[in-house]
Amino acid sequence: MTTLQKQMTTLSLALCTTATLAGGSAGMQEGMLDVNGASIHYVSQGSGTPMLLLHGYPLSGELFARNRDALANAGYRVITIDHRGYGKSTAPASDPGSLETYAKDALAVLDKLNIPKAIIGGMSMGGPITFEMYREAPDRFMGMILIDTLANPAGIVEQHLWKGMAQKATTFGPQSLAPELLKDMLTGQTRMNKPGDAKTLTDIVSQASVAGDVAGAMVLANRPDSVPTLKTIRVPTLILEGLEDTVYPPEFSMKMMQNIPNAKLVIIPGAAHAAIFEKASAANAAIIDWARAVR
């Protein structure tokens, strides 16, 4: 990158941040960071104890739009990112994404923002990324939040499901995945009575790139067995689970709680796989109550 390009990138980041502060939520910063050959979009809101939240497949940091205000007002600096290939983030064709790359990207964002340690949480695919980050850099964790996710590797049926998602995104485009996923992300009641919620998630899904969708699907299909990692976790851990999650049902969360020392499990009624979005108020209350002891 030339000196002029670096100056333009810095100027673009500053303008983006200023615009957000002027027109968005108080204390919110937004920008792009050059990380490991990719351009990673991030949002940071609030001040206090840092809390990095990682989205699932095939979403973006906007999954947590309903959580930022409440958590920031409770005394946390909430950072969300779009994994490479999702939302506003981009990636080189040579490295569209992998479990290791997603983890390194997230750690590099913390470095860029001068955050040595944080509460780190992941939803769905964000869970395996969180485990990989912990294996790589456990000293960066103040606490861990696991949201509608699991530590087990994918079985044969699930492997084929994710490979099918990759094929469909390649053939019909990222937006084609929304109907396949929304039936599991939101409960039937929410889909019927709150069509705006379904539209919001559909719009987020549609923002992904084809390469990002394929890379993420392969991460989910080929994720390692993180069950042995659970007993090594030495930080306070909160497990959030939608009672009606059919992707990774509550039984998986219960097993994680039993294997992680100092873990707390909160089941959220009336929520499916996207519990953090569908029942944001309940999720926020659970996080704030748990995180009081993590400072």
Topology (elements, then pairings):
Layout: H1 3-23, E1 28-35, E2 38-45, E3 49-54, H2 68-73, E4 76-81, H3 99-112, E5 118-123, H4 126-136, E6 141-147, H5 156-172, H6 177-185, H7 188-193, H8 195-206, H9 210-221, H10 227-230, E7 237-242, H11 250-259, E8 263-268, H12 275-278, H13 280-291
Parallel strand pairs: 3-4, 3-5, 5-6, 6-7, 7-8
Antiparallel strand pairs: 1-2, 2-4
Organism: Deinococcus ruber
Protein name: AB hydrolase-1 domain-containing protein
Keywords: Signal
Structure, explained:
Strand 7, helix 11 and strand 8 form a beta-alpha-beta unit. By secondary structure, this protein is of the alpha/beta class. The chain has an 8-stranded mixed beta sheet, with helices on both faces. It contains 13 helices and 8 strands. Keywords: Signal. GO terms for molecular function: catalytic activity.
Overview features:
alpha/beta; disordered N terminus; 47% helix; 295 residues
Summarize, please.
This protein is α/β, with parallel strands linked by helices. Helix content is 47%, strand content 18%. The chain has a single domain (3-154, 224-291), classed as Rossmann fold.
Secondary-structure content class: alpha/beta
User: What is the H-and-E element order?
Assistant: HEEEHEHEHEHHHHHHEHEHH
What ranges have pLDDT less than 50 throughout 5 or more consecutive residues? 1-24
Question: Can you count the beta strands?
Answer: 8
The CATH architecture can be named as: 3-Layer(aba) Sandwich
Distance between the termini: 39 Å
CATH superfamily: Alpha/Beta hydrolase fold, catalytic domain
- Beta-strand percent range: 15-25%
Q: What is the CA-based Rg, rounded?
A: 18 Å
Give the overall average pLDDT.
92
What top-tier CATH class fits best?
Alpha Beta
CATH topology: Rossmann fold
Largest beta-sheet characterization: 8 strands, mixed
Gross morphology is globular
Strand order of the largest sheet: 1-2-4-3-5-6-7-8
Question: What is the helix fraction of residues, given as a range?
Answer: 40-55%
By DSSP (H or I, 4+ residues per run), the number of helices equals: 13
Count of all domains: 1
